[in-house]
Design brief:
alpha/beta; five-stranded parallel β-sheet; 6 helices
């Protein structure tokens, strides 16, 4: 069985993330979305809130599940029995960071491959950071996130 990990902070999950997830779900028999506890970022949403926002998006994929994890990604992948890590590349600016991370992961876990997937070009400029900035200032993020996530952002930034 081909099993991959799709890791990220997902703070919050965006349509770009979901597009990459759809691609991974077509390529692999099993996909585990790994919600990172400690990514070096200061998340707006708790791990539980991020998991709650993600769950409705997984309903149509019986072979996709989500888990909150901490520690090294390659250790998590091996513990889950995955042979691959899926990483989304939005633009050339993502490549250098992702390439270096893939090489480090290869060094730490040579049996786990990293596969880069590009989202639909409609989402190439969209990031969780930009979505949060737009939502923080009352902008409409409905085009960039699922409805439940838009509602959660609105509630988080309500005066």
């Amino acid at each position: 069985m081909r099993h991959c990990i799709y890791p990220g902070t997902f703070d919050p999950i965006t349509c770009g993330h979901l597009d990459v997830l759809e691609r991974a779900a077509r390529l692999f028999d099993r996909v585990t979305v790994g919600i990172a506890l400690d990514s070096g970022k200061a998340p707006l949403f708790t791990p539980g809130e991020r998991m709650e926002m993600l769950q409705p998006c997984l309903a149509k994929h019986p072979h996709v599940s989500a888990v909150v994890f901490g520690g090294l990604l390659v250790d998590f992948a091996r513990d889950q029995g995955a042979t691959a890590i899926i990483r989304g590349l939005r633009a050339l600016s993502d490549f250098e960071f992702e390439f270096n991370m893939a090489l480090m992961n290869r060094h730490l876990g040579p049996t786990v491959e990293t596969i880069f997937v590009m989202p639909n070009e409609a989402y190439s400029y969209c990031s969780s950071t930009l979505v949060k900035q737009v939502a923080r200032h009352g902008g409409d993020v409905a085009h960039f996130v699922p409805p439940n996530v838009a509602a959660a952002l609105k509630a988080k930034f309500a005066p």
